[in-house]
Each structure stands twice: as C-alpha cells, then as structure tokens.
Amino acid sequence: MIELAFSILAADFAHLADEIGRATAGGGTIVHVDVMDGHFVPNITFGPPVVKAIRPVTTLPLDCHLMIENPDEFIPAFAEAGADMVSVQVEACRHLNRTLQLIRDHGMLPGVVINPATPVEMLSEVLSMVHHVLVMSVNPGFGGQKFLPRSIERIAHLRRLRHELGLNYRIEVDGGIAHDTVASVVEAGADMLVAGSAIFQPGKTEENARDFLRVARAAS
User: Fold this and answer.
1) From the centroid of its chain, how far is CA 89?
2) Which of 26, 51, 61, 129 makes a 20 to 30 Å CA pair with 107?
3) Domain ranges of the chain
4) How many other CB atoms are there within 10 angstroms of residue 125's CB atom?
5) Is 211 an annotated catalytic residue?
6) What CA–CA distance (Å, rounded) separates 211 from 152?
C-alpha cells in the first residue's frame, strides 16, 4: 500500500492543525515529524512538546524521524508525547540493536534511517527488528533539497533484501520527493513517501496531496 507521510516541516506553523487537516483530506495517512537538534544535522526543528501539541488534532500515526545525537535519551519522551513510529539514524546510534528495542519497549514502531553515503549493508543485522527502513534521498538537515538519483538503486536493494530474507519491513523515502520523482521511487520499491514542499502550499495543499498520491499509485 502506497502511503503519503506528509512532512510538517514544510507546513505553516501558525496554522498547523489546519494544515494537517488539509493534507489528510487530500489522502495523507501519516504525519511525518522531522526532529533535528543542531548537532547531528545543521538545523533545529521540533521536539516532544510539538508532538504532544499535535497529538490531539489528528488520529493519524505520528512518524518521528530523530536526526539527533543520543536518541536513547529522548525515546521515552516521544513515547509519552504520543509518537507512534520512531526512526533513528544508524550513524547516530552506538548500539543500534538496543536503541531499536528501546523504541519497541515503549510501544512504538521502530525504524532505521540511512544517509546517502551509508551502505545499505550496514543494516543487515537489524532488518528483522524494524517496521520500516527510511532511505534519505538528500543529505538531512533541510527541506526542499534536490533528489539524489543514486537513491533509486538503494531502494531497490532494500526491496531485494526484503524478498531474499522473507521480511516485511516497509520502505520509506525522504528528500526531494515530488511529482517528478515519486514514480521512480515507487517503481523501485518505496511504499511510504515523505513529502513536504511538494504538498504544503497555500490554497493547494489538499489538491497537491491528492495529485501526488494519484501519480504514486499509478506507478505501483
């Protein structure tokens, strides 16, 4: 099933509840929250208080991507705030197996994230533990970046591994996903599509989400 995980990083923060409502009306089924700490990536965004604030305004799952150092310290707080899914960067985790188990122990679905220069093979020992693998198709830190074409083969690699290992993890992709790139990532095997700049636009958010999903599902 192809799903749109709309990234609130691109939304109008002054009207966030309305923005989430419009993206949902357009067919979005996951709220993607980009958590950045100014250390692991050169930007600062949201923390658990924002997750807690938006939890009452949507019934959709909250998908929190932690681009932070020492994620273990914050996992309990995201669980308490109402997160449903938490994904951590393989590059930021000293003991990745333990971190993923900590996410599960707190009642959330664990995901693992790889940056563009990180080999897919680094995930081999944890693929059986995760609900989803998030492939960064840009270097993380900022929205609105250009899609890196090499990401297509990385998504296809993860799809092959899923088949070979008999696993059922989802494949999520984030970075530069728009109407002109979404078909190729879906054809490669992605089924959770993170998009922000391509969705949130004054007066057009609902329409953009609907058109984005139409293109994505046609490619599947």
Assistant:
1) 11
2) 26
3) 3-219
4) 10
5) no
6) 22
Single out the catalytic residue among 37, 63, 174, 191: 174
Euclidean distance between CA atoms 92 and 72, whole angstroms: 10
Q: 63 pLDDT exceeds 70?
A: yes
Q: What does the DSSP assignment read for 170-202?
A: EEEEESS-STTTHHHHHHHT--EEEESTTT--T
Residue 84 bears catalytic tag: no
Which residue in 12, 34, 72, 180 is the catalytic one?
Answer: 34
CATH architecture for residues 3-219: Alpha-Beta Barrel (3.20)
**Coil, strand or helix at 105:** helix
- Cα–chain center distance at 34: 8
